[in-house]
From TrEMBL:
It is found in: Nucleus. The gene is LOC100828770. This is Histone deacetylase. The keyword Nucleotide-binding does not apply. Its EC number is 3.5.1.98. InterPro entries: HDAC_I/II, HDACs, His_deacetylse_dom, His_deacetylse_dom_sf, Ureohydrolase_dom_sf. Belongs to the histone deacetylase family. HD Type 1 subfamily. The lineage of its organism: Eukaryota, Viridiplantae, Streptophyta, Embryophyta, Tracheophyta. Keywords: Chromatin regulator, Hydrolase, Metal-binding, Nucleus, Repressor, Transcription, Transcription regulation, Zinc.
Length: 499
């Protein structure tokens, strides 16, 4: 089939040509590579430092604003996570963990998610980068990058799959202060379960996950899981089989994401770029090339909607660094030379010392028939969104703290009072802040006739709110923001809840 179906670019009105420059900021903490999950553990934060070295030697650091993340504070993490879980993460140490056996079990910490030295500051660092990226997008940047983030499995009060705190959920909550709809896209080989679960019952966040499905961690992500209540049809799952190659992957990604952008029309996009979907990953079983993986970045970038690029899985670390370096180039609109520049980790990239690596000759178990079925079913689900119940926008809650900057000047208007949750421009009306290019006018529309008949809409579901979405994309802020704590308490009944 024509893999460009759905558009090689997009059908949305844009503010500039695809080749035009984007304002890009990049979050990096030079300590992040020192965190160590333990001997034999496949998750290696060192890959973030390797990525950074490649960026430096390809000259990309000069092309974007480089920021050191401000560590997320307890109260930042508690916007999604349970207080007792955050307290536990803050206090537990490798030396004292034996005294907290019950808590370790309760919070699923110990095996896949071990206690290691500096665990809490590691969480603060990667979460701080993602939230800081969201703040930057809220204040006019086009693309923000945090390769240390993307830990999509973490739950409200439970670690999972090498993830402790869910920086993605926190970043999306930050984006929701300014954007009535946020799109989450996940190209990690594993299902983005933590993010899906957090927003399963809201229509303000659409989650789309492309993942290996069937006898594979975490086991969720069935095509039949579409969201619940107001969130029905706002979760999309794309189940894939072993050995998927670039052409098969894009034959789903482009038509599906093209249609999602057209129908959902998000104000911001969060793209989790887990690199364990690459060919030859230590834990993965897909057969994507770096260019095939990066095509997802290129495609999402082409819509000229602010994008937060995050890391995620990726366990053959030389290829993770290659991939995220190349994708940073895509974000900046640069095609990087295949011949790798000398760098401090050069020996990792032998014997060829090239940026790209050939995919393998493994069998692609995804037949064209299966791919066609998945595509039509998901596109069909998307047509049901057109008349889905709409929601109202809420009053903007206080700003998160902005990241510290280790390079250029920071806009003083964006500065946050050190120990206060009160932002200087807190009271600023929503329609006066930041980018609002898609919003023509503001007015009230009461939710009424468009309410779905088959699903009772719960008034108190996730982000208890209603954005009116009209063809001209109007909305009205209303003064009843619901804290996330309450929102996540109302997750899908089938889903596991914490004690
Ligand atoms: Zn993964």
């Amino acid at each position: 089939m024509d893999v460009s179906a759905g558009g090689g670019g997009n059908s949305l009105p844009t503010t500039g040509a695809d080749g035009s420059k984007r304002r890009v900021c990049y979050f990096y903490d030079s300590e992040v590579g020192n965190y160590y999950y333990g001997q034999g553990h496949p998750m290696k934060p060192h890959r973030i430092r390797m990525t950074h070295a490649l960026l430096a030697h390809y000259g990309l650091l000069d092309e974007m604003q480089v920021l050191k993340p401000h560590p997320a504070r307890d109260r930042d993490l508690c916007r999604f996570h349970a207080d007792d879980y955050v307290s536990f993460l803050r206090s537990v140490t490798p030396e004292t963990q034996q005294d907290q056996i019950r808590a370790l079990k309760r919070f699923n910490v110990g095996e896949d998610c071990p206690v290691f030295d500096g665990l809490y500051s590691f969480c603060q660092t990667y979460a701080g980068g993602s939230v800081g990226g969201a703040v930057k997008l809220n204040h006019g940047h086009d693309i923000a990058i945090n390769w240390a983030g993307g830990l999509h499995h973490a739950k409200k009060c439970e670690a999972s799959g090498f993830c402790y705190v869910n920086d993605i959920v926190l970043a999306i909550l930050e984006l929701l202060k300014y954007h009535q709809r946020v799109l989450y896209v996940d190209i990690d080989i594993h299902h983005g379960d933590g993010v899906e679960e957090a927003f399963y019952t809201t229509d303000r966040v659409m989650t789309v996950s492309f993942h290996k499905f069937g006898d594979y961690f975490p086991g969720t992500g069935d095509i039949r899981d579409v969201g619940h209540s107001k969130g029905k049809y706002y979760s999309l799952n794309v189940p894939l089989d072993d050995g998927i190659d670039d052409e098969s992957y894009q034959s789903l990604f482009k038509p599906i994401m093209g249609k999602v952008m057209e129908i959902f029309r998000p104000g911001a996009v969060v793209l989790q770029c887990g690199a364990d979907s690459l060919s030859g990953d230590r834990l993965g079983c897909f057969n994507l090339s770096i260019k095939g993986h990066a095509e997802c970045v290129r495609f999402m970038r082409s819509f000229n909607v602010p994008v937060l690029l995050l890391g995620g899985g990726g366990y053959t670390i030389r290829n993770v660094a290659r991939c995220w370096c190349y994708e940073t180039g895509v974000a900046l609109g640069h095609e990087l030379t295949d011949k790798m520049p000398l760098n401090e980790y050069y020996e990792y990239f032998g014997p060829d010392y090239t940026l790209h690596v050939a995919p393998s000759n493994m069998e692609n178990k995804n037949t064209n028939r299966q791919l066609d079925e998945i595509r039509s079913r998901l596109l069909d689900n998307l047509t049901k969104l057109r008349h889905a119940p709409s929601v109202q926008f809420q009053e903007r809650p206080p700003e998160a703290e902005l990241p510290e900057q280790d390079e250029d000047q920071e806009n003083p208007d964006e500065r946050h009072h050190a120990d206060s949750d009160v932002e200087m421009n807190d009271a600023k009306p929503l329609e006066d802040t930041g980018r609002r290019s898609s919003i023509q006018s503001v007015r009230v529309k009461r939710e009424s006739a468009e309410t779905e008949s088959t699903d009772q809409v719960e008034r108190n579901s996730l982000l208890d709110s209603s954005i009116s979405r009209e063809p001209d994309d109007t909305y009205k802020a209303t003064p009843s923001w619901q804290p996330m704590q309450k929102l996540v308490a109302r997750q899908h009944q089938r889903r596991r809840t914490c004690q």
